[in-house]
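Sync notes, pocket subgroup
Present: LS, DG
LS reminded everyone that the earlier model was apo-only. Rerun requested with alpha-L-arabinofuranose included. Inputs:
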Amino acid sequence: MPEKPLKFLRRWWVAALILILPAAAWGQRGKLTIAADQPGKPISTDLFGIFFEDLNYAADGGLYAELVQNRSFEYSPTEQPAWHPLSFWELQKRGGGEGSVGVAEMRPIHENNPHYALLTVVRPGEGVGVSNGGFDGIPLKAGETYEASFWAYQAFMGQMWGRGDNSKPMPVTLRLETRSGEILAEASLQILGREWKRHSAKLKPVQTVSDARLVLLAHAAGGIALDMISLFPEKTFRNRPNGLRADLAQALADLQPRFVRFPGGCLVHGGGIRRYYDWKETVGPVEQRRARRNSWGYHQTMGLGYFEYFQFCEDIGAKPLPVVTAGVCCQHAGSSPGRGQEGLPLEEMPAYIQDVLDLIEWANGPATSRWGAIRAAAGHPEPFGLKYLGVGNEDAITPIFKERFKMIYDAVRAKHPEITVIGTVGPFAAGPDYDNGWAFARELKLAMVDEHYYVSPQWFWDNLARYDKYDRAAAKVYVGEYAAHDRDRRRNTLRSAIAEAAGMTAFERNGDIVHLASYAPLLARRGHTQWHPDLIYFTGTSVLLSANYHVQKLFSVNCGDTHLQMTLSPTSEPRKLAVSAVRDSRSGHIILKIVNGADSPIPLTVELAGLPAADMAATRTVLTGPGPDSFNEENQPPAITPVSVELTLKPTFDYDAPAHSLTVIRLPQR
Ligand code: AHR
């Protein structure tokens, strides 16, 4: 097996491993035979996707590229007790300036955006204004362009109560500054008139800093109303206005997900009945969207709303999979504590169902339809091509739930038979809600249901045969949320990632009924992480890819459309070896995945039965690390990262799968 270029480090690592392992650990060479000349079993072409939930500051302060925190002065103590509309803003009085800032709601930009700041300048000095340090400081790159913007009107000039000249504009400067006040970029603007108007300027900082602030200073006595004070990098993902943070979005795009589920999770339920996530409040001009408390205990601007989610899906070639509630609140978040799951009153259901139907029209309707026109006005006249719709999330399967789910399901099926409605079978891999959810799915003949499991790594190994036993005639499965939660602070250990890889081979092998699968949660901002483990961790300036991320990516970029029949002998107990083999008809490649969860290498002879005896050029990628407890750490070289080599293989070859590893071998089929 000549290999080129085999990295020195990798060769050293493998050699060291071989030397330190006792010969007995190698055991008997297993035989893996793949029916490479057979057509195989068709499997889902949408199998691997992602699930985005605004948890851990995944949206504001995360994927959404806005750099100002609390841009619309809508923070509130209902989100966090210490928060108020001026949180994260500081009054600035420079060079003898005198003035104040307050919150007003008399004449807002829009009723959905009720609060704004009123800046009063008594004596301008070198400027009176406000500053914002973003989310843990604003990160700026020297030489890149940022768009600073705000909405304003002139409340009065000179002094309040009319003693001034309102024909004169209020001069303001917009600045990017370091924490110590060094000016990094600056622009001058003028505010004139009594109507709300958007102002903007391009700023190019002269230095790269990780904790800058945006400062707006007014330079004459008077008062101005300010709202939607914003700062975006010009370079967002695909340069979309109101777009996504490029590095994070790229990390998601690199996963090549076939679908994106959003916006939750528990988030869709909101904080109780009638406080569910309302998609209609998340489309349209950003200054008219209703910000709201995130059920994870912070603030959502809704700047990243349904339009942006759908646009992102289109940009990365993924199918959108929005989730709406089933007309019930979460059993753990009733509007009055302890009341548990509550349903919308039945007389309110028709309006709610109409909202769901409107969502489909918004996504797929012609630009001439009522809701399609709103999409078109936002800049997307073509339909988005919605195919999947999740209804419910981890709900208790009660009569209240079933009645409302069925009403929604019947209405969608009647009007939009082209949409696949995905039901829920509760929060766990087994138990009463799982059983009742599946029974209900059979009763309604649902096309697909959503299973969730956050379980130990060992659970994945113990349940590799889970889907082998599923009824092929029943609903297909969407494994909408799953992750291996390891002991020791639920870290993203190699052990957890390898266990998930094992589970994913079972998804592939059962890809005739496991139609979709997505790890959860996806994103977590350091210092604001409420849930561990997550796939990707980030700060304002860095992105850390976990071992689990690499597993997701290796499966997703190496997926196929048929699963090939395989036999493995001898099989050892307890099982710590999982394999799958797929054919990708687009590339004509056979892709083999070998997962070893054991503490020792597993020696295998692999036979691609039926292929001619000639050499084949292949690529082999191995993901492993220093040990099962290892994980990728911030500010350290990654301990766990895939390493690829090109090699030639005969249809029968020996391979020793390293301890705690995922190996992907891609072979062109002749
Ligand atoms: O992924 C985090 C949470 O886990 C989701 O919001 C919820 O669906 C599940 O309980």
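DG: The chain has a mean pLDDT of 93.
LS: The first strand starts at residue 3 and ends at 4.
Action: DG to write up.
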